[in-house]
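Quick illustration, no need to memorize.
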Amino acid sequence: MSLETLASKQNPDGGWPYVRGCSWTEPTVYAILALLAGGEHQAANRGLGWLQAAQRPDGGWPPQKGVEESTWVTALAALLPADVLGAKPHARAIHWLVGVSGEETTFSYRLREFLLGNAIPPELAHAGWPWIPGAAAWVGPTSVALLALGMEYRRAPTAAIGGRLEGGRKFLLARMCREGGWNHGSVRALGYESAPYPETTGMALAALHGVSSPQVDRSLTVAKGFLSQCRSADALNWLRLGLMAHGQLPPDYSPPSGVCYRTCPEVSLDAVVTAHADGRGQLWG
């Protein structure tokens, strides 16, 4: 699917579907990022109109219009620079992100565990981001939030954003699997060591841009192994971004033949990866 075809998938209301149907925030943001990187401003601007109208009063975004709750997709919207999204909508999105964290690091949760006589596991010491407020933090939303806040911190550093960035990075390092890489959440699940997944490994590595440690080095090795084997479009997109963030993607790499980029987010993120490879990306400095 080319950028022209992606633009043709735009709904009459200005948003994008995952494949077909109604507009959703996630594919709309990815499509806008891709189209702007490719110089397709007309369709991108219509998408921005849909996105700006979907922002909720608390500064966050719902997964689609009509849902009365802000969720992790707010971090995706905040990936759009302030001069693109609009200074006020962007500032409100950043404020929402700074104020949201996983339930396991809230005062009420820790007080309840203390009263029950339960110790807090070390991996729960640092605050990440949940899919929805009031839930536990996960690797995916934490990674996207770190990318968005990292961009904002480079533009306008504040202590509040710096603190959330530091805690979020520590959250990811604490949730890294023993062999390297990341799964969706816990290091151990139901008493068993968790195995890493390719897409979340790529997301976390992208979010840890600029972080050097033996843990990151192990995860880069795992990511390279995934890159040589997996055939998932979503995983290949994030693995390339994650390796690129650390200068570890081979310059002559191209996705294997037979990989199907089918959904709007898959096609859009592939275009974002290409833009970064060409020096036109904005997810990190």
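The chain has two domains: 1-95+254-285, 100-246.
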